[in-house]
Amino acid sequence: MSKPIHFPPDFIWGSATSAYQIEGSPLADGAGPSIWQRFCAVPGNVRDGDNGDIACDHYNRYKEDVALMARLGLKAYRFSVSWSRILPQGRGAVNQPGLDFYSKLIDELLAHGIEPMVTLYHWDLPAALDDRGGWLNPDIADWFTDYTRILFKAFDGRVKSWATLNEPWVVTDGGYMHGTLAPGHRNLHEAALASHNLMRAHGSAVQAYREIGRHQIGIVVNIEPKYPASQSQEDLDATRRADAYMNRQYLDPIFLGSYPPELKQMFGDAWPDWPAADFDLIGQKLDFVGINYYTRSVVRNEPSNWPLKVAPVRQPQATYTETGWEVFPQGLTDTLTTFTQRYGPMPVYIMENGSAFYDPPNAENGRVHDPLRIDCLRKNMQALSNALAQGVDVRGYMVWSLLDNLEWSLGFAKRFGIVHVNFETQQRTLKDSAYLYADIVASNGACL
Ligand SMILES: OC[C@H]1NNC[C@@H](O)[C@@H]1O
User: Fold this and answer.
1) pLDDT value at position 409?
2) How far apart, in whole angstroms, are the C-alpha atoms of residue 209 and residue 194?
3) What is the ipTM of this complex?
4) How far is the CA of 415 from the centre of ligand 1 (A)?
5) In this predicted model, what pLDDT tens digit does every residue of 110-141 receive, in sequence order?
6) Which of 190, 372, 314, 339 has its CA nearest to residue 255?
């Protein structure tokens, strides 16, 4: 029997998006190109040749979209700032129209009683910095910090929640290890270096915030809990390796002062012995951790899959989403309890959780029925409530995503929105899941 669902009275319900996935107009008003502008322009990189030139046209329709958030009763909205709108060259001269756009968005949110939660980096590195090595250049910690200082000074009076990075694992695994995401590199040495520089940049920005900011700052990591395919030692070891690479790689240096030992064992000489001073920088105290949860993986030993030597095992009885992810709500509960056990109690936000199932390109009679997404949402709400009942200090939940948007190299075909977007007409239509989510928000989960 499922346990009674209960959320704290001050629980914060919201939604999440990211700049390149929804804004469009990437070069408007003086903005510079990002690495995603470049990556999308290379044939074959993005399904159907899709790109962020228009996306959800949020740059022009933000007032309409904030009105949608208000209609859903959202208390918060997590969005990212496009670095190259603020600094077209990534450093140097500030582009005031870029700052003005986000200032207007923040004011629109506040006017509707919606708390802005800002992600400083959600993958769209200025192309000009990539030309200087991007995340491979150790100077990027300073470049990133200079960029964040501009935003802290401009918006900290109105923005009370900042996150430095979104999913550093995806940035390095997709962008530098496997080449499936911008900037499209496939190099083990680079993956290790980019990962470490991301964490240095994170620490440096938190340090800067402590000098300038008056509110809260954290990081957002994706966590995919790993479960052994069998209790054989090989599979147990493989599960530990997969967990170290995808999950502990980013939280251990922040909270425990070192990387998991499995990384050096797997990467070998591609994993340098980083200077001790770097861990002082990375280990800045945080006010919260954002966790993005989508799925789990069941892991077996697979010696041929260098360097991790692991392989996923598909679960025949399970439901899988359009992105090939198992629907496994228990993994959300396990992620949260494991986090608290390993790193100690601290405020946590679920900064992304959602699912991509097939939705039609056009709404029918003003409705979009999405029963599978609704089933997923209901089950994740139960799992989240179970984690709270076990004492995990979860402060809020941001559904991914407010709008159907550009799912990176998968293009517009994979729809995560609770609001449907007709990309021909830019018509927004609340899906059935949006009506359910509005009820969840209004009743603080009591409707479930
Ligand atoms: O794959 C769904 C989401 N996952 N986290 C990062 C977001 O940018 C993705 O759209």
Assistant:
1) 98
2) 22
3) 0.99
4) 11
5) 999 999 999 999 999 999 999 999 999 999 99
6) 339
* Mutation probe of ligand 1 site: the residue of 325, 408, 414 with most atoms within 8 A of C-beta: 408
Q: Rounded distance, CA 246 to CA 335, Å?
A: 13
Q: Where are the alpha helices (DSSP H) in 311-370?
A: 330-343
Give me the amino acid identity at 438. A
In this structure, how many other beta carbons lie within 10 angstroms of the beta carbon of residue 345? 11
Pocket test for ligand 1, best of 80, 350, 373, 400 (most atoms within 8 A of CB): 400
Taking each helix axis from N to C end, the angle separating 432-443 and 371-389, rounded to the nearest 10 degrees, works out to: 20
253: tokens are: 């240096």
Q: Which of 47, 401, 409 is the pocket-test mutation for ligand 1 (most atoms within 8 Å of CB)?
A: 401
271 lines ligand 1 (CB under 6 A): no
Report how far residue 162's alpha carbon sits from residue 205's, in angstroms, rounded to the nearest whole number: 10
**What is the C-alpha to C-alpha distance for residues 135 and 120, in angstroms, rounded to an integer?**
15
Task: Report whether residue 407 contacts ligand 1, using a CB cutoff of 6 Å.
Answer: yes
Q: What is the value of pTM for the model shown?
A: 0.98
Q: Is 167 in the pocket of ligand 1 (CB under 6 A)?
A: yes
Does the Cβ of 79 fall within 6 Å of ligand 1?
no
Task: Give 121's contacts (C-beta < 8 A, 6+ positions apart).
Answer: 80, 83, 144, 164, 165, 166, 201
| Pocket of ligand 1 contains residue 18 by CB under 6 Å | yes
Q: Which amino acid makes up residue 385? A: S
| Rg of the chain taking only CA atoms, in angstroms | 21
Question: What amino acid is encoded at 16 in this protein?
Answer: A
Mean local confidence (pLDDT), 407-411? 98
What letter represents residue 338's amino acid?
Answer: T
Residues that are catalytic: 167, 352
What does the block give as tokens for 355?
Answer: 């699912």
- 417-441 pLDDT, tens digit per residue, is 999 999 999 999 999 999 999 999 9
166 CA closest ligand 1 atom index: 6
